[in-house]
Amino acid sequence: MSGRKEDELKLPNYINGKRKRRKSPSVSPVKKSSSNTAPSQNARSAQSSAGRGKLVREQPRKPKKRVNYKRLITVLSIFILLICGVIFLLSRAGESSEQLVIGTEQILPDGVKILGIDVGGDTKAEARKAVSAAADQIIAAAGITINADGESYSVTPEQISLAYDIESILQRAMAYRPAESGVVDVTSSGDPGEINDIFTWNTTNLHMAIEDIAKSFDVTPVEAEINPIHGTSGISFDFEEGKEGRVLDVEQTYDYINSMLGTGMYAFTMEGIYNRVTPSITEADLQSGFGLRSSYSTRFPTSRSDETVQNRVFNIEKAADIVSGTIVAPGEEWSFNTHVGPRTYDTGWKGANGIADGKDYTIQAGGGICQVSTTLYNALVCADVEITYRRAHTIPSTYVDKGLDATVDYLTNIDLKFLNDTGAPLYLYAYIDDVEDTKYKTITFEVYGKSLPEGVTYMTRSEVAETIRRKDVNYTDDDTIPRGYKLVTLEARDGYVVNAYQDKYINGTLDSSELMYTDTYKGNAEEARRGTASPKYYTPPEGAVPIEE
């Protein structure tokens, strides 16, 4: 009994946790080894023997902790990312370690040269200074000289805007890598690492500079000339040989200079590329087949007392002098108005009779020069030249047959024009002579050029196909003239229908006639003041005539 009670009182704490743990008097406490090692087998046996028949107290087991795998994976991922970032930064630092040597100043790679200057290992500032000095010297010494036909012309670096961009050049140099690095060198020119093509120029300005040289260099050829010599027996001619011209070949000169600049030649002398230009008409051309194609004359009155007549003579001589000596090139259309110019008092023309309103004459500047245009017109038709514009007067002229006149008026653009379709130059000459023992002069136009076929001549001719009688009268009542009388203010003029011909003769015999055109002169009615006053109180004025019933 006593034994059970003793055993119950000495239950271990893990069975009776509410009771305080008591020391057993018969069991000595086991000291823990300082080396934290487990007790030996003998000790465990002795302990077991000593405690036989008694419950042995055991240390409680701690519960096992569960592992959080999700947190572990997250930590490992962050660690791996940090490691990769460090590796990347270290690699970039290794790449740039070649350039970042002195603070932030970049160093040019070894083996690179600019304009022959070894700048490898230099800083950008050092390379910039050395290269700029050399480049500036090259530009200062640059210049192109063109020698042509004994003359020299220059193209300056300023004209073509020769320049360089130092920062762009240094950037190219920084990109250079030696061949053993395995990087292809695409920036150098010439040998590996050599950068010489650093200059730029404006090609448009270069072309313009050459064009400016051409303006000074080019010489227009001088055509062979025929100089008229006026003698007592007429006009003779002196033939003068032409002169060669020259033309700079702008495009070829530009291509050559541009290619030389592309090879790095900025100062050189070249022979100009140009062509000789021969005259299109030589002395031999003029003399071969040259001759008088036609001649035509008209006459006009002179007077020592009538100022209006004197003015008309002056205008005829002035216009003839302007036209005389004209050379009309093959294929050229010639205009009388364009060549002679406007007829005004300010331009030196004098007042003489000219047709106004198609029915009367008034004093006009340049009056009378229609005789010059008419004479020239007939000479041109006789020269078998194509007439492109011609108009008849409203009143037939007295110095030429009806239908053969050619009026001109600058203000209303009535003109005389012709086209040189002969295939050779035409020469127009005019001269004025006195008609012996008369108060008249003659104006003659001669047309020279490629001769007409041998024995062939042309003449102008006209025929009146119809006469239009004008007996009608336009009256204006006048109460100062007695009834039954009229005072004529404008005479009636009959009208005409006229055919104009060009007749062709061979050795003086009419071969053919060609109708050129038909002109119609309308004429005009008589104009008169008709009396309405009483005959008892008014007498007919001077010049009044009875009205015919």
Which secondary structure elements does this structure contain, and how are they paired or packed?
Blueprint: H1 2-9, H2 41-50, H3 69-96, E1 100-102, E2 105-106, E3 113-114, E4 117-118, H4 124-141, E5 143-148, E6 151-155, H5 157-160, E7 163-164, H6 166-174, E8 194-195, E9 199-200, H7 203-217, E10 225-231, E11 234-240, E12 245-248, H8 250-262, E13 267-271, E14 274-277, H9 283-287, E15 290-301, H10 307-323, E16 326-328, E17 333-335, H11 336-340, E18 351-356, E19 360-365, H12 370-382, E20 386-389, E21 417-419, E22 426-434, E23 440-450, E24 456-468, E25 473-482, E26 485-490, E27 495-506, E28 509-521, E29 526-533, E30 545-546
Parallel strand pairs: 3-8, 5-13, 25-29
Antiparallel strand pairs: 1-2, 3-4, 5-6, 7-9, 10-11, 12-14, 15-23, 16-22, 17-21, 18-19, 20-21, 22-23, 24-27, 26-29, 26-30, 27-28
Description:
This protein has 549 residues and is α+β, with helices and mostly antiparallel strands. 26% of the residues lie in helices and 32% in strands. Helix 7 crosses helix 8 (250-262).
